[in-house]
Amino acid sequence: MAIADDNIIVRLLRGKLGKFIVFRVVNGKTFVSKYPDMSRVERSPNQRANNTLFSDAMKHANSVLNNPQEKASLQKRMKTSAKLKDRNPLNVLVGEFMKEKSDLLSNQKATEKLSYYRAKYELSDRQAAALHFLIRTGQINNSMYQEISRVSKPTASRDLANLVNLGILFCMGKGPSTTYKLQDLLVENGLNT
């Protein structure tokens, strides 16, 4: 990493130049470094789950911004709110989506609940990782399961069907829009007969 002090050429540069060089300014000094190679980074199931959640937030935000009526409604809401007035609409939508889908349980409580399921049922490591995510966020779908567990679509479908057959999950919807929720949450809320 090189440090450029008072260099007129790179003084005001920030960001990246393609996928080759990164410019950072810290305390008035410009740092020039190689673009990071993230191809070999092994992410944890929670990191992959959070990446999927953020991807869903971005899709939601873009769909709202591409719909003229919803965009106008958002802009009107932002103008009347002192908190949202000066923010970027994309950031507002992503933040609201993430807050809405935020953790229902703390990581510690989710781990405790997962321990209960692991003691009661014979779960694979990938099922346990996905179940941990589901306990924290409230729902999961096939594509999220694939991302968290790094498995193919048929394997994800089999694993989720197995969790439904064990009585851990409840299936809502059909086809690509199918979501899965915890059976005991439905029982607690009086939604299961």
Question: Which helices and strands occur, and which strands form pairs?
Answer:
Layout: E1 2-4, E2 15-17, E3 21-26, E4 29-34, H1 45-65, H2 68-80, H3 89-100, H4 107-120, H5 125-137, E5 140-141, H6 142-149, H7 153-165, E6 169-172, E7 179-182, H8 183-188
Helix pairs in contact: 1-3, 1-6, 4-5, 5-6, 6-7
- Mean of residue pLDDT values: 83
What would CATH call the homologous superfamily of the largest domain? Winged helix-like DNA-binding domain superfamily/Winged helix DNA-binding domain
What quaternary form is this?
single chain
β-strand amount: 5-15%
Distance between the termini: 63 Å
At a glance:
The protein has 193 residues and is an alpha+beta fold. The chain has three domains: 2-34, no CATH class; 45-100, no CATH class; 107-188, Orthogonal Bundle (Arc Repressor Mutant, subunit A).
Would you kindly provide a written description of the structure presented here, covering whatever features stand out?
With 193 residues, the protein is α+β, with helices and mostly antiparallel strands. The chain folds into three domains: 2-34, no CATH class; 45-100, no CATH class; 107-188, Arc Repressor Mutant, subunit A. The protein contains eight helices and seven strands. A four-stranded antiparallel β-sheet has the order 1-4-3-2, with no helix packed on it. It has a three-stranded antiparallel β-sheet with strand order 5-7-6. A hairpin with a 3-residue loop joins strand 2 and strand 3 (21-26).
